[in-house]
Specification:
mainly beta; rod-shaped; 0% helix
Length: 154
């Protein structure tokens, strides 16, 4: 098959010219009629590589924070991002930037880990990456505060 990156035509421009000659005669007629036409075939470049994730497959987020981080992939074409998986309804992704965020603030005591699948698409190929988001417990115990500003956390 033709390969855009390695043209095999004489001028190496990925263009082929074909001259077609057809005989148009019938069994009732002894005369041959010839029809000819030229056809130009141009080989176009196509996307041959899927996106590749370059970002980490795990994130750690303080409880009470909504921004998780960014998923990042590389490709020769522009990319769009989406998510699926077990916890995809609790998380949003910006389809252009890959920014991940919680729809509501996470609480470590309620749920300490989330799992999603990040998807990068260049319009032809899709690449998937399993993502784990760990919630970090923040100690909000302010019972031992002294001198109006100094607190000792348990």
């Amino acid at each position: 098959p033709p390969d855009y990156e390695n043209p095999e035509d004489i001028r190496e421009i990925n263009e082929y010219h074909i001259h077609v000659l057809a005989n148009a005669s019938s069994s009732n007629d002894n005369q041959s009629r010839f029809v000819s036409d030229s056809i130009r075939v141009r080989i176009n470049d196509t996307d041959e590589t899927p996106p590749a994730f370059t970002s980490s497959s795990s994130f750690s987020v303080d409880e009470g924070k909504t921004l998780i981080g960014y998923v990042v992939a590389s490709d020769e074409n522009s990319l769009t991002y989406s998510i699926s998986g077990d916890d995809a309804l609790e998380i949003s992704i910006d389809s252009n930037s890959g920014a991940l965020s919680f729809n509501t603030m996470p609480d470590y005591e309620t749920k300490s880990s989330y799992s999603i699948i990040a998807i990068a698409s260049d319009g032809i190929y899709e690449t998937r990456q399993n993502i784990t988001i760990n919630i970090l417990d923040i100690n909000y115990n302010f019972n031992n505060c002294y001198f109006n500003d100094v607190c000792i956390f348990d």
